[in-house]
Amino acid sequence: MIIKGLMLAILLAAPAEAATRIKDISIVKNVRPNQLVGYGIVVGLNGSGDTLRGSPFTSQSIQSMLDRMGINVRNSPANAGNPIQTKNAAAVIVTAELPPFANEGGRVDVTVSSLGNATSLSGGTLMLTPLSGADNVIYAAAQGAVSISGFVSTGRAEKLTQGVPTAGRIANGALVERRLPNNLESEKSFTLELLNPDFATAARAADVINIYTMERYKGYAARAADHRSIVLLRPPHLDATQFLSEIGELAVEPDSPAKIVIDEKTGTVVIGHDVQITPVAVAHGNITVRITETPKVVQPLPFSQGQTAVQPRTAITADQAGGALNLVQGDNLHTLVAGLNRMGLKPQDIITILQTIKTAGALQAELVVQ
């Protein structure tokens, strides 16, 4: 048996930054989607729904739903002491994302997830479910057939499950009933928020916008408020949608700090473009441990009343490779990667060396270990 460290692929960042549209690296403040959630019942299941013992709230929900439809099953003599069976129904949580500027009558997709102990939602239909936001106001209503990608097949001694049969989606399953407040046209100024905050990126974006607005509208319109926010002043008599669309198409070269991200669980290393290492000598060796089991069968002596036994014999050897002293330095990504590759290192070895170099103060970058 040979024990070695787990070695996985190494991922390197792109060698150079490229110009990117402003709309791809920023969002307009307060122009965002909103999360909706609701509780509903999926019916029409083929015996794969909730059980009374595991999900008693499903039976209560069905009774409440029938009450609203004018059907009284609570005090019915036929159902006295016999709760409603729920094997063909399941309690679910319905979630959706209401996009900005959605109007009444629009449709959005919904996700349906089992809340109880149902085994599958295949073939089920979601009953009318109101969806509300964080303010407890109903903004949409969902209903329709649930589509799932997984399945479960059960036999007497075997069970096969593929995917997640207890969660599915309904395409365009929610109808928007209330629109969110929209004051975009009345706003005189807007704020762009960078997805990756950086002072250099904010300053570059403001400069690009001002150059464009000076040539087109004869005035400056942008100011970098901080490393995250860029304040835009809308030119007079210009439509807000047109102004934001023009600004979004402008190209800027984003900047990012020197950073190395390490995922020790998978052995993944991501090295940023501006990472540098000052000259440092590194010696690193790998140890391979070999464990060999050669058990020996021991027979008892004649007429000794003994029993045959197995005597364990274990041989352990350790080989250490490498260990040579290497000089590593790099003023750019290509030089750094070439220096590490010349040492013949695996990703797990690179992780160890980078952590040690950072401790020595020779790594001029932020080291993030996940």
Beta strands, count:
24
Residue share in β-strands: 35-45%
User: Which structural class best describes the helix and strand composition?
Assistant: alpha+beta
Gyration radius, in Å = 32 Å
Summarize the structure.
The protein is α+β, with helices and mostly antiparallel strands and 370 residues long. The chain is 19% helix and 39% strand.
What does this structure look like?
The strands form seven sheets. The protein has a six-stranded antiparallel beta barrel with strand order 5-6-7-12-9-8. Strands 1, 19, 22 and 23 form a four-stranded antiparallel sheet that branches. Strands 2-18-17-24 form a four-stranded mixed sheet, with helices on one face. It is 19% helix and 39% strand. The chain is an alpha+beta fold and 370 residues long. Mean pLDDT is 79; it is low at 1-16. It has six helices and 24 strands. The chain has three domains: 2-12 and 259-369, no CATH class; 20-30 and 184-252, Gyrase A, domain 2 (2-Layer Sandwich), CATH 3.30.1360; 34-176, no CATH class. Strand 17 and strand 18 (268-271) form a beta hairpin.
Features:
single chain; 370 residues; four-stranded antiparallel β-sheet; 24 strands; flat; disordered N terminus
